[in-house]
């Protein structure tokens, strides 16, 4: 019981350390500087984790094995992607963008903007807004806002 109280007291004391002291603690633990822009809370948590792991034993063998397996799967996934000729981060964005919900003719989109409600009807050959047919939602969003917007994002699709 006493050891638990000592650890809790020491962990709580990390909150009183300056950023420089926490950075020094990080460098002692990981033998490198913390990433640029890392938040103070992460520095505190890293120091607290290290203290607790040192005193209480850290991860079990089974947990370490599971983590190693997960890391290996992720590394393999990225290695496989890098071997494909046209695989790039941009391709992933295209793939996720294609999962966007499709709106079918007959649907009605409603968006409040600056206190005014805007209604768009979806038709076979585009979108009807203020009795005019537009080829895309982005052109309608631009008309409403006066700025470039992603139409599907503007209308919450």
Outline, from the CA principal axes?
elongated
> What is the strand tally?
4
Distance between the termini: 55 Å
Order of helices and strands: HHHHHEEEEHH
What characteristics describe this protein?
4-stranded antiparallel beta sheet, DUF2924 domain-containing protein, 157 residues, 13% strand, 7 helices, 3 domains, DUF2924, alpha+beta
What's the layout of helices and strands?
Blueprint: H1 2-13, H2 19-30, H3 40-56, H4 61-83, H5 89-97, E1 108-113, E2 116-123, E3 126-129, E4 132-134, H6 137-145, H7 151-154
Antiparallel strand pairs: 1-2, 2-3, 3-4
Structure description:
This protein folds into 3 domains: 55 residues; 41 residues; 47 residues, no CATH class. About 8% of the residues have low confidence. It is 55% helix and 13% strand. It starts with a helix and ends with a helix. It has 157 residues and is an alpha+beta fold. It contains 7 helices and 4 strands, in the order H-H-H-H-H-E-E-E-E-H-H. The longest helix is centred in the middle third of the chain and has 23 residues.
Task: Produce a short descriptive summary.
This is DUF2924 domain-containing protein. Helices cover 55% and strands 13% of the residues.
